[in-house]
Amino acid sequence: MSLLTIQNLSLSIHGTPILNNVSLSIAPGEIHAVTGESGSGKSMTAFTVMQLLPNGTKTTGQVTLDGTDILAASEDTMCTIRGNDVGMIFQEPMTALNPVKTIGDQVMETILIHKAMSPKDAETRARDVLDRVGLPADRFPLSRYPHELSGGQRQRVVIAMAIALRPKLLIADEPTTALDVTTQAQILDLLKGLVAEEGMGMLMITHDLAVVADMAHTITVMRQGQVVESAPTQALLADMQHDYTKMLFAASTHQVDLPDKPAPSPLLEVQNVSRDYRLPRTQLFAPPGVFRAVKNVSFTIEKGERLGLVGESGCGKSTLTRAILGLEEVQEGQILLDGEPVFSGHKPNLAVRRKMQVVFQDPFGSFNPRHRVDRLITEPFHLLPNPPKGLKREEAIAEALIAVGLAPSDARKYIHEFSGGQRQRIAIARALIIRPELILFDEAVSALDVSVRAQILDLLADLCRQYDLTYLFISHDLSVVRSVTDRVLVMKSGEIVEQGVTEQVFTNPAHPYTRDLIAAAPVLPDLGRGAA
Description:
Blueprint: E1 4-13, E2 16-26, E3 31-35, H1 42-50, E4 57-65, E5 68-69, H2 75-81, E6 86-89, H3 93-96, H4 103-113, H5 119-132, H6 151-163, E7 169-173, H7 181-198, E8 201-205, H8 209-215, E9 218-223, E10 226-232, H9 233-238, H10 243-252, E11 266-278, E12 290-302, E13 306-310, H11 317-324, E14 332-337, E15 340-341, E16 343-344, E17 347-348, H12 350-353, E18 356-359, H13 373-377, H14 390-403, H15 420-432, E19 438-442, H16 450-467, E20 471-474, H17 478-484, E21 487-492, E22 495-501, H18 502-507, H19 512-520, H20 526-531
Parallel strand pairs: 3-8, 3-9, 6-7, 7-8, 13-20, 13-21, 18-19, 19-20
Antiparallel strand pairs: 1-2, 1-4, 4-5, 9-10, 11-12, 11-14, 14-15, 16-17, 21-22
Helix pairs in contact: 4-5, 4-6, 5-6, 6-7, 7-19, 10-16, 14-15, 15-16
């Protein structure tokens, strides 16, 4: 018997078609994954089940949840269903949580809104469900706030909110995209356990096909608002029918053709670097405590080398990145670029700073939406003593945009006019425009679809040939790091625990922590590769 049945669902917003004849069904205890690129209609299908749709939406077809006609249900009925019969886990836990309310209050909120139990019983239930998702009372009292938790812990709170009333259906919208591999593995195991123990159905929306292959009972592949293929997981992996499905799986295992490294010549030298942060005083006249986020780290990046940096959230990757960029002063050791210190005295050395650029994880968030592309990508010009003007400025803009596969005419557009992959290309153009000697890629492809990610990684390889790029690639996606780096550093608790040639480290890891990271990373089965 089906818990959720979607039949021939079509949806338009102000006359623009979004979904076209979408059909799928989920049984109790089943994990049904919906995958596809951004804009394929995955999330809109989930929002239709929840009836969280914008004004101007028109729907046809049928959506039935445990006998209830969702499309014909009133808003009062849907308010009863949401949280009670259907729980939803959103992609970004910090956005989904209220920063000024405790985690206990937020888990209790769903229970109290539905008047499912008394406030005292609701508090007991909140405590039970937080224990269930791996946040025990001795370490995570109900009085904790979201900012006091890590990304994985926040996601556990969001899951606790979604399952507080034991819903029949759980919708998980990209629940692990922003998490490191070990936390992702824990969250996925938690979700699988909840489905098995509670007997709920789960609709999982994701573009990570390795997660899908390992977790889902059934896979539905969507493209441009339509279902192009749907089958039990093992059957689909063994015999993919649609070219688009084959393309997605091929992109997931895409290997980048990096050019050979030039002769060794040191560019960036990190020598015995430590970075401390002051902690609040525990008593009125007690000295402040100190937390050492980076501990005695040393490594060298050669000119033309592509170096990877991996590790869990909180291991010190971002702190080390800020120190390299000259944004934070270190307490011990020194960082040299071309033999010159990044910090001169207690101030950043601007002569060195202009030789480095950074590409961030969120391309939209790193741009001012009110400025056109030509102004956005020329922001690094302020670092130059004599920035190009007039015709030379226009030529520099055109050259940078062409280098990343865009047109010079794109310079007069706004950032909202581009897709996620195009925005990341613009971010790379901004980093390239002053021809830096070193670029830092900070989770630069983690939010991209597999096909777009493959294009961006190929772009990096092409730029390495054209510009002799040297970069530090920071990521929690081990498969990406493996394909675009020559050497890799593994960081844990502020220390480099292993480093070496990328393929050697991944094939024969020496440190137990490295082995744990590699073991936790989801991997597509060989049959998926063969089918692709």
